[in-house]
Amino acid sequence: MTGHPQSSAAASIIDPGTIQAYRETEYRVLGGQPFTLRVGKVCADLLAAHKLHQVDGSAFLTACNPFSQRSGDAANANRQAELAAELTRRGLTFAPGIGQHPSNDWPGEDGSLVFGLDLEAAKALGARFEQNALIWSGADGVPQLILLR
């Protein structure tokens, strides 16, 4: 056990190729000082953002393309707006972002880096928005792929 809350790919119903694509995707946080999250690699900018927001964890979430089945732009925009409304309702601070694989043909997906969201709450939101996975980072600033199915 690595000590990280990463779910086991062996126990997942998600296609191994899809899981690999999630691991390779760049999760870009936009806004004031943009930075990129990469699974398994410490991110100094993320640690600085955690300090700025006085939190020890965050989650990168999307509501787009439920269960990695492509949806239209309008449907994805509506789902992402619903996620933003839920985060706002909960009083959470979040920054816009986009998840984009560096080389495959999957279009970038809008997302949000949510500050101070614990792992269980992140998993519940990911499940509610029919996602296969999410990115969660603890106090060590190392983004981890968390499989939800």
SSE layout and pairing:
Elements: H1 16-24, E1 26-29, E2 35-37, H2 44-53, E3 58-61, H3 73-89, E4 94-100, E5 109-115, H4 119-128, E6 133-137, E7 144-147
Antiparallel strand pairs: 1-2, 1-4, 3-5, 3-6, 4-5, 6-7
Organism: Ottowia pentelensis
Pfam families: DUF3293
InterPro entries: DUF3293
Commentary on this structure:
It is a single chain. The protein has 149 residues and is α+β, with helices and mostly antiparallel strands. It has one domain. It is 31% helix and 23% strand. It has four helices and seven strands, in the order H-E-E-H-E-H-E-E-H-E-E. It has helices at residues 16-24, 44-53, 73-89, 119-128; strands spanning 26-29, 35-37, 58-61, 94-100, 109-115, 133-137, 144-147. Strands 2-1-4-5-3-6-7 form a seven-stranded antiparallel sheet, sandwiched between helices. A hairpin with a 6-residue loop joins strand 6 (133-137) and strand 7 (144-147). The longest helix is centred in the middle third of the chain and has 17 residues, at 73-89. The chain is globular and about 35 Å long. This is DUF3293 domain-containing protein.
**Number of spatially distinct domains:** 1
- Tell me what portion of residues adopts beta-strand conformation: 15-25%
Shape designation:
globular
What's the count of strands? Answer: 7
Can you count the helices?
4
Q: Kindly report how far apart the N and C termini lie.
A: 20 Å
- Percent helix range: 25-40%
Q: What letter string, H or E per element, gives the SSE order?
A: HEEHEHEEHEE
Query: What structural category characterises the helix and strand content?
Result: alpha+beta
Low-confidence stretches: 1-6
Radius of gyration: 14 Å
Mean model confidence by pLDDT: 91
